[in-house]
User: What shape does this take?
Amino acid sequence: MSKKVLIFQGGWDGHEPQLVSARFGRIMENEGYSVEIYDTLDCLADREKLCEYDLIVACWTGGTIPPEYTRNVSYAVGRGTGLAGCHGGMCDSFRNDTEWQFMTGGQWVSHPGGDGVEYTVNVIHGANPLTEGIEDFPVKSEHYYLHVDPAIEVLATTRFPLVHYYHISNKKIDMPVVWTKYWGNGRVFYNSLGHHDDVFVNSPNAQELMRRGMLWAAAGKDYVQEHGLTTERFENNAKMY
Assistant: This one.
């Protein structure tokens, strides 16, 4: 059976969703996946259909999402469909939807200095093979400050502060740039790089991290099926949002 990826693109055009979606689509096609790209959130309306995909890639900045669409994605990911995205396309989406933030692991709050800040992405090596052989690398782009889920596994960080603003009265911190987490049986991958599509040209390591992360998230579907995993232990009818 063909491996399938759904990419939904849209929202604020400043993040170049069409270019980024096309790039990610080519990457996954080169890995043997069939890719469907939609420019409407209505592709999220059928939760059972979403469960047929190995991976959902979010490339949608801002805006609002019908709550049932978020629940549909949550349902599919919880059953093994992977979820991946970059920059504002996944963790600056649907700012009023806390369930989306709960699932994805973080939310944008600022980019001190705007575009063109020069900084280093520090790659964490050791337990996770996703970073194997990838060294620290420079980036010139937005320097993303996020509020993050303490449950994420951080794969790369960047040092704050670099630009003077009110936040500099606090201690220096290492802000997560790349992470993984789980949502039920599903795998979630996020990379905060990607303000513009050319970040992935100018920083090949950023693209390689996306390639590995999308493949890792997509592979979770096979793992669920091979091990006969169910969602029974995750189900709860109590109010969650």
